[in-house]
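Handoff note, outgoing to incoming analyst
You'll be picking up this chain. Sequence as last confirmed:
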Amino acid sequence: MEHFYSLLIAVLLDQLIGEFSVAHPLVGFGNLANQVEACLNRHARNDLAEASLQKKLLGILAVVLLIVPFVSLAIFTSISLKEWSWIFDGIMLYFAIGARSLVEHSNDVATALKNDDLPAARISVAKIVSRDTSTMPAPAAARATIESVLENGNDAVFAPIFWFLLLGAPGAVLLRLSNTLDAMWGYKNSRYLSFGWAAARLDDVLMFAPARLTALTYSLCGHCKDGLKCWQTQGSKWYSPNAGPVMAAGAGALGVCLGGDAIYGGKLKERLELGCGKEPDSRDIDRANHLIWRSIVLWLVLVFFIELLSHA
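Most recent structure output, in case you need it:
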């Protein structure tokens, strides 16, 4: 039952404390990643093809230098603690997940929309999405927030739990660090297109299975038929291979329309419509958060019974 106890510790710590505000390990890791990137991603050859290959190789080196030592440390510590390793694993998983933080940030948007304070809603949305929010109408603000809740429900909750269940604390550390590097370097611009290639591909590989389990979970915890249908018909058409199934299933499970064109960096990006049903509003942000927590409870129950049966 050690996996269940560790998972329960992580969820309870996240619920009681939330995001660790003082010297969070991921903040320190992000600062270290910035230093490594500044050192390795400064120069490239004049020939574009050679420069692209060189930057990819440097990006691979950066990923290895940043991830391998911390995963190795997690392995060593977990082994060294022996029968007490489940406590360490729970604490490490707590640092890897962020369900309460996700709810709190999205609630800021919902509260502003309920108070008809669109400027405040736009400011809050800008904290959780990378698109332009300065002219965003209320329905678009609700859309963007729900998309963030659904996608980050996978990235910051269920994917770390999935890899923890497979590999223990090292698995959760591996997933969270790779996802952090992808968030920092996964941009398709001149600076990161080649250098961030390794981080983006690693994140895609690690997210593949959890994303589809998350999509299934959202469907089971909402309007199941619509969630499964939207996942099947829309998920693979989204520009992100892992976010597509998650957001399509979540939108269907909630009975709302998500996606659609959005402005990034001053340019209009054409995006597929996801889900089915009505245009979302502030109440649907609350429903999206409830969907996340129902999904967490489902995973806790399943892990409990699976471990119970395995020890029977």
